[in-house]
Specification:
Two copies of one chain form a homodimer.
Chain A (H helix, E strand, L loop, with lengths): L3 E4 L8 H10 L4 E5 H7 L1 H10 L3 E9 L6 H15 L3 E5 L10 H22 L2 E4 L16 H8 L7 E6 H4 L5 H8 L3 E6 L1 E2 L11 E2 L8 H10 L6 E3 L4 H4 L3 H15 L2
Parallel strand pairs in A: 1-2, 1-10, 2-3, 3-4, 4-5, 5-6, 6-7, 7-10
Antiparallel strand pairs in A: 8-9
Helix pairs in contact in A: 4-5
Chain lengths: ~260, ~260
């Protein structure tokens, strides 16, 4: 269990204090947090909570959305929150096309520019910016960074200690170049997240993920590939699924651990 | 209108004889046909129908699904049907992963092998096999060929007169390498299909497409790119959408023509 981390969005309705206690009780060493529940609970209070429980915050989700008008303020705040939580990785989901826009090249350029602006703040705070490519089905409305190769094209302009990439199995498994890109990424891999792919996709597609082992993704092969690339960090299970969310938090955590042990390790 | 073609799936419920008459009446020179309605109408009878109406069959959808047990029989039959209809291009959708399989590399290898087996039949019949990459959201259940680059990696093993690729704007627009791959494809571009991307995606995602101009895809830029690559063939509007299908056939055709004139030409 040394590398296992539970992303709190996998049990979206489990209150922060309970998920932290649940992880500690289950011997889970790491947790991935989201900004909204942390803000609701109180940043300093949340930082104390996880520290007192002996948990490592393996990532904070999420900065990005660089096409929003207030992206500078929001992202600087996200960097500060990550630092306060002791999270060394801030996950960046770039945002999609601005409303009414068809200029995908322009949006991508703005993402690269924004990361360039944000990088000094992140470096000063000791937080790494982790660019997450989302599955291309989210390109229009959530993330114009659609492949690991594209994320690396941006990340490689920066110090690897300051800008890295996220490898999330759900988003990258379909890509016939993914193993080559993982090898290319090497120590730029800032986070490794795990979810499985199942069909049919639900309306809106966001909540279509499944626990490790329930779908068609070669999770172990991808884990071995990030390991071979030199990644030694945490392995976060992060699943968004309405059915799963309806279950009690401890059951969800137990199911995530079981899937991890059987299909990822 | 010289290059415009109406893919009959855009008006799924318009009977074959009526869609052919409707295209002829509207001065549409080309039509894309599907195997099921053609078989229902009768192959020889359908061939006579379109010929008598003065229409060109710009493509036949579709062969492929190489992970099905009867793929050889079905695909040989599809080649014969294309030849009988005078369709020079048979669109191939490769099929997804076999039930319960996670072996995406193996599935991709089988696709390449199957095309190799099918190519002599296609060459003998004067039909070009047109490999269509589908959007990666269909990788698991419909098409393990998820990018234009991947389709070209297979197509390039064969005579360009026998194996080409389909560029469908809906499936490829998100790819940051798409313009480079279109240039690479050159005269291997066997068909150019047009649909627009809109969100939110519906359950199952298959019917989420929109008429040209209703979404965020740079359709004209992609059309100019295929032209610059040397493609001079038909431009098929192909949209699957439940709302659109509920409208009268002539209205759908008129809307497709309007979208084509305003956003593709």
């Amino acid at each position: 269990m040394a590398r296992f981390s539970f992303n709190q969005a996998t049990a979206k309705h489990w209150p922060l204090d309970e998920v932290v206690a649940g992880c500690a009780a289950a011997g889970v060493p790491g947790i991935g947090l989201w900004r909204e529940p942390v803000q609701e609970y109180g940043l300093a209070r949340a930082a104390r909570l996880v520290r007192d429980a002996g948990l490592t915050v393996t990532s904070l989700c999420r900065g990005g959305f660089f096409t929003d008008g207030d992206w500078r303020t929001e992202n600087r705040r996200a960097v500060e929150e990550a630092a306060a939580l002791g999270a060394s990785e801030l996950v960046l989901v770039s945002g999609g096309l601005p409303a009414g826009s068809r200029d995908v090249d322009g949006a991508r350029q703005r993402v690269a520019d924004a990361i360039g602006e944000l990088a000094p703040d992140a470096a000063a705070a000791g937080v790494r910016l982790a660019i997450e490519p989302l599955h291309p089905m989210f390109c229009a409305d959530r993330c114009v960074i659609a492949t690991l190769g594209q994320a690396l094209d941006i990340a490689e302009r920066f110090d690897p200690a300051v800008v890295g990439v996220v490898v999330d199995t759900y988003h990258v498994w379909w890509d016939d170049t993914v193993y080559a890109q993982i090898a290319r990424a090497g120590r730029r891999i800032a986070a490794f997240q795990v979810a499985d792919w199942v069909t049919p996709l639900p309306e809106g597609v966001l909540l279509g993920r499944a626990l490790p082992g329930q779908g068609c993704v070669e999770l172990r092969r991808l884990r071995e590939a990030v390991d071979a690339a030199g990644y030694t960090g945490p392995i976060e299970v992060e699943v968004f699924q309405a059915d799963l969310w309806s279950r009690p938090g401890p059951d969800i955590l137990a199911a995530a651990v079981t899937g991890y042990r059987s299909h990822v390790l």
